Amino acid sequence: MAEWKYLFWSSRQGWSCCKRRTTDFSDFLSIAGCTKGLHNSEKPPEPIKPEVKSTEKKEVDLKPKCHEYVIQAPKQIPSFNRPSADEPMKRLQSKISPSLKQALEKLTLNNKEASKEEESDEIKPGTSCKNSGCSKSYVGPESNEEKCVHHPGVPIFHEGMKYWSCCKRKTSDFDNFLAQEGCTRGTHVWTKKDSGKKVVSCRHDWHQTGSQVTVSVYAKNTIPELSFVEANSTVLNMHIVFESEKEFQLKVNLWGVIDVFKSYVTMTATKVEIIMKKAEPVLWAKLDLPPPISVQNEKDNQKNEETCEELD
């Protein structure tokens, strides 16, 4: 019989005791033994494999082979104590754009021509009545004896409907609104009365960057001589006169703190921009600071909550 040790090398099979080799595995199994001896019911011991000395694993250095840099967190910016709102106000420097200067020159010429016509007591034929809703024009002295049918109220436009506050005849058509006959009888007014400046609301908004806050007031043809903006560290006060007879006023308790000496105002033909330098580089949640809740209001709110709980 052949020894149990077999060899497989380069796709050829054979026994180590004899030199016969084959490439077919079936032929390999049918090879007759080359040695005679007694039968053995036990499997011969396997040859001892040479010991492979295991090399100790060296610690892998995971550190990058480069220079080490220490990254530190940014230093905290020291917080400022909020200054008092009672600090003295400082008028901000105003910069007037060339477009506003040109618009004011044209407006001044038109006002001079209109004032010359108003100074003369003579009413020119064709002058229309200044009362709202009256379509009559001056023809001569006999026009003063006519009754003026007009609307003493003001026009209101709300949710697509148009009407006068004095009679409230609502319509959705603008031509029908203009054609509505007056609801009051009186005398004609041929010259416009000087009612002085009237305080009006004006659209405004704001935006910010990391270092400054800009407030935009959309007032056309602002008069620089009559307008001013003053502020302290936490309060902004605006007084803007525009279109000759309109006046806009607004006082704001600012959310953050500003540097008054680095803030200024820019006036153009279409708007007024107030550029305020931040005293600390933080983002503002709002332009204005909400008023603090008084202790009395807190007590009233607690009482209301307790009353609601008792009712429940």
Number of helices: 4
Structural class from helices and strands?
alpha+beta
Regions with little confidence, pLDDT below 50 for 5+ residues: none
How do the helices and strands follow one another from N- to C-terminus?
Answer: EEEHEEHEEEHEEEEEEEEEH
What would you report as the Rg, rounded to the nearest angstrom?
A: 49 Å
Distance between the termini: 103 Å
Rough outline: elongated
Strand element count: 17
Task: Report the major sheet.
Answer: 5 strands, mixed
Portion of residues in helices? Answer: 10-25%
Main sheet strand line-up: 4-13-14-15-10
Describe the structure concisely.
This protein is α+β, with helices and mostly antiparallel strands and 312 residues long.
Give your account of this protein's structure.
The chain has 312 residues and is α+β, with helices and mostly antiparallel strands. It is elongated and about 155 Å long. It contains four helices and 17 strands. The model has no long low-confidence stretch (mean pLDDT 79). It has a five-stranded mixed beta sheet with strand order 4-13-14-15-10, with no helix packed on it. A five-stranded mixed beta sheet has the order 5-16-17-12-11. A three-stranded antiparallel beta sheet has the order 1-2-3.
